[in-house]
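Many introductory courses stop at the sequence. We go one step further.
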Amino acid sequence: MVRDTDTETWTFLESYNRDSLPLRIVTVKVTGVVAAMNEGLDVATGEILVTTDDDAAPHPDWLQRIEAYFESDSRIGGVGGRDWQYVGTQIKEIGERTKVGRLQWFGRVIGEHHLGVGPAREVDVLKGVNMAYRRTAIKGMHFDERMRGTGAQVHFELAFTLPIKRAGWKIIFDPLVAVDHYLAVRFDEDQRYIFNDIAWSNTVHNETLVLLEHFAPIQRITFLLWAIFIGTREALGIVQYLRFLPKEGGLAWKKWLASMRGRAQGWQTWRNCRLADGVSANRLSSSQS
């Protein structure tokens, strides 16, 4: 996938010898990672679809390990692993986590794929820089175009993976299925390490929409109450706002406002889609009768 505005990549490709590695180049004209992923999904062939980022370098045995998992169990629908994050030549964050890629029953999403250690295990969500899917598990699916943002569109993986999990497929995380992730500069409102209220609200909107669609009615209520009154450091509820207020002052207030706006927008998108689905179902029922 190459964006129409990416002049550096187009210049490189003009002199690239495709005999060494045949490439099918697809031009992407719509902003956001979702559009690029869907372009790739539409033209990809083969039973296993594998994705990584343009700022990542897979380990030499990456594809071999992924293929081995899919061959070992026909019920495995997705496979991913750790992304070793670098800032320049230095590891970004030192640490280890055994609980990664999980969605807790009340709505907290635990990522931490970049710190994952331990044996291979089933998870709820993979990370876009390091994930692969069985084509039969994602038949008819596309990445969710309702995800907000003009670049990263945070939580697009959550929107894609949870329906696969609900359908009964296994999603496997193995830290040995690894890539080196050299965190590149983002060219949208979602800048790393810099607060932007639009990017913050977009992230919370995306998470809220996905979880409202995923949860049963009682869980939706639990999730909304937890989100409003508690929340996380990435989506502040009242408790988290009070926690960060002494250290961050006015910034904590801005984060809380952006979080609440994102929650409200996510709920509105979910509600509008439910109403639209209901209207479509009624029209179909009327036409059949």
